[in-house]
Amino acid sequence: MFIILVGLFSPLAQVNAQEDLKGFCVTSSYNFIRGKKIEIAAEVKNSTCTNGGGRWFETLPEAERDKAAQEAAAAATPAGSTPFERQINNLDCDYWPPTWFNGCLLKISYNFFFQIPSLFLWLSAQFFDVMIDLGIKSTVTSDSGFIPAAWAVIRDLSNIFFILILLYIAIRTILGLGGHEVKQMIAKVIIIALLINFSMFFTKVVIDSSNILALIFYNRVDVEVTSTDGIAVPTDAALNGGKDISGAMWKTFDATRLITDKNIKLLKTNIVDGKVTEENNLSFSLTLGIMLFAGGIMLFAAYAFFVSGLMFIGRLLELWVLIIFSPFAFMSWTVPKFASIEYLGWDAWFKRLISTAFMAPIFMFFIYLIFMLLPHIYEHGGGVKPIFSRGATTTILGAILGILIPAIIVMSMLLKATQFAKKGGGQFGEVLLAGAKIAGGVALGVATGGTALLARGAIGGAGGFVANKAATGTNWVGSKMGKWGNRLGVNKLASGLTSVGKATQQSSFDIRATGLGKTFASKTGMSMGGPIRSIEQKNKEKVEKEKKRADELGVRADEGLKQKLNKTEADLQGLLNANSKELSDLDKLITVRRQALSDANAQFGGNSPQAEKAGRDLNNYKNRKKALKTGANYAGDIDINTGATTTTNQKDYASVNVGTYTDSAGVKHARTIDYMEDIEIRDRKHDIETENRRRRVAFAYRTNKINRWSKNLTKWGTLGITNGFDLGSNASREAAHAIIMESKIEDKK
Amino acid sequence: MITEKSKNLIGEEMLSLPKEMRDAINSFYWEKMSEEIGRKYLLNENEIETLQLETASFLLGLVDEDAYAGNIEDEVGTSKDEAKKISEEIFQKIFTPINNTFEENIKKNMPNRNPNAEQNLNFILSGGDYSVFMEERNKS
């Protein structure tokens, strides 16, 4: 180990940053490790330093001095040990004194969150470079001996089809079914029978064209590969003719830059009241934070490199298959129905050939764009643009942003390029990614589907019935207990049981349809997930969800209140049906008589005898209808000429009812048409609405429980000086209000 | 025609309605319109008055939407079909426009755009109780 020593041998070597320094001495000492780099006074001689076993540096600007010190420290660093590793190794991990939590946790975290992601990144970066190199070189395809052999088999098989097609044309011609279409087919068969022998050549021409185009961009990508000793070497020597594209991209946002000596020193430096102090070790939170940040960036980059590389394999395999099946595709062009065959027919084959082949130049164009951008977002040396620096000094926030922002830009562009790669990578790329999904999905689908079928019948039917019945009973208890029902959780139990009943009766018991199932599918499909929702949107969804939930708590069809309403409506309908003819007749007569009265008024005037006569006639029918609907005794018509009472059409409708109804005051009423329409149905509906409201309000109070508790607690906490503070979520508050007020959810878009 | 006595009674009941609702109802000549609808369906003076009373009852919130047509049939004394047609026309020409105006009035007046300092302070001290902003509006 080396250290910078200050104040050796004499008072002349005392620390004094204000003096005009001539140089500084570097030698081995514990102090340097602790970060105490101290400058030497002017009078200290070079010889004094070297005689003492140190190394003398002439006075240099501060930046160069730091660099020299770092070089000295780096030279002293054991092979394979980074500054950050030294920080980690310095940590204690003992039972006593108890340092196991901080020390051991950080050591374990270092391995999990830093070392493993860096391994993944290294592997995927190598994979990416090799795949890109392989993908755009035609030699891989041309050197593959199995392709011509497999192609020859397909060509021979396709030639057999020509015989069958010719037979088909012959039969159609013999039967007189041929026409213009058949003649066209003959011409096509002759042309393709010749061209099919060149199908591999034509396919390779398309593929080579795309590869040459991709190589134009690839060759323009300026990558300088650096060896382990820091010397730039020709790319061919470093990667067998390939380019370290991933390495060059990674250099832009190299997360390990965070853990250089310089940045570690920054992190350990505190400024309190203008006084600069330096800690011996990094704090627990900072160390863990750095590991997680760097690890996250590395995993993100590893994912992007891996997916891109994987798609290039997909392209390669897809192109091989396209070459092999090119004779069949050519043959299928002769028959329109063959041409539209999925995957192998001419239409699909040609489309896939173009999209798969030209995926490479599109992807390489994006890579070229990224490399054009790299110099602008990366500043060699510091690696951080001045906008992230405070004056001449780089801040730690600047260092983090200097890594994060380039990482987001570069990796986003790479993923965008990968999207094209995914589209163009063809079936094989998807198969590689989805292979596990298909295998696992089939097995799980059979298992879960079968289980779901059984569960739906057994649990869904019986379980739902039992839960609904239990909920009905609990709701009854809740309504009888008033506010105590809410406090003792009876209402909650009732709504919970309602949910169970609804869920069991509606659920398919299919795990594939659940959130877990969807998450599983998403994760195994390497999906990046959907768009991130805003807090406002999430709140709105929560309000809607709670409100919907509250609506579901309403009186169900199988509950007593609803059944009573149904019975009343059924009784009324029965009564109306039984008297429908008379009611219908009376309605018609009323309409006719009303017209007659109107005519009489118009013709003879409102007070004329004719109008009076027509008015009495209309009233007779109106009164009869009223008697029928109220179950009263119709005493008889009024004489339309004289206005005297008569017994004509007298009829007692006392029997037109369906029993009696006892109202809330305990009074019995005959259940006539009129009474049921006006009173009984209204009361039944009101009962249901009251119960629904009670349940909704109880649910709203539960939804807003945290808010109410926090308000009460803070009110007590402030000895009643304040009204308490509502610490619950806005969504819960809004949901509770919306439920109680039965308001519509406002769309704020 | 609706009698003066009935008119006064309805006027008194109207006072119990929220201001936005009163404004919405008063902005429509609902009496005249219901009279015209009654005449269209050949109702006589007494029947028109009954129809207007039923309409007023609905506007005051004393009658449910479901019961309105039935009440016209029973109280005015029309056939079921006539009652249904009258009811539909009144909903279309009176109730729906009044409801739309009412909603607009609510939306227009709901946000208190110029809360005073005391309301702001109360809002903060209450921990986010928005009802403090409503006091000013209720006073007006």
Automatic annotation (TrEMBL), chain A:
Keywords: Membrane, Transmembrane, Transmembrane helix
Residues annotated as transmembrane: 112-136, 157-179, 185-207, 284-306, 312-333, 353-374, 394-415
Domain of life (superkingdom): Bacteria
Stated name of the protein: Uncharacterized protein
Organism: Candidatus Nomurabacteria bacterium RIFCSPLOWO2_01_FULL_36_16
The organism's taxonomic lineage, starting at the top: Bacteria, Candidatus Nomuraibacteriota
UniProtKB/TrEMBL annotation, chain B:
Origin superkingdom: Bacteria
Protein name: Uncharacterized protein
Gene source species: Candidatus Nomurabacteria bacterium RIFCSPLOWO2_01_FULL_36_16
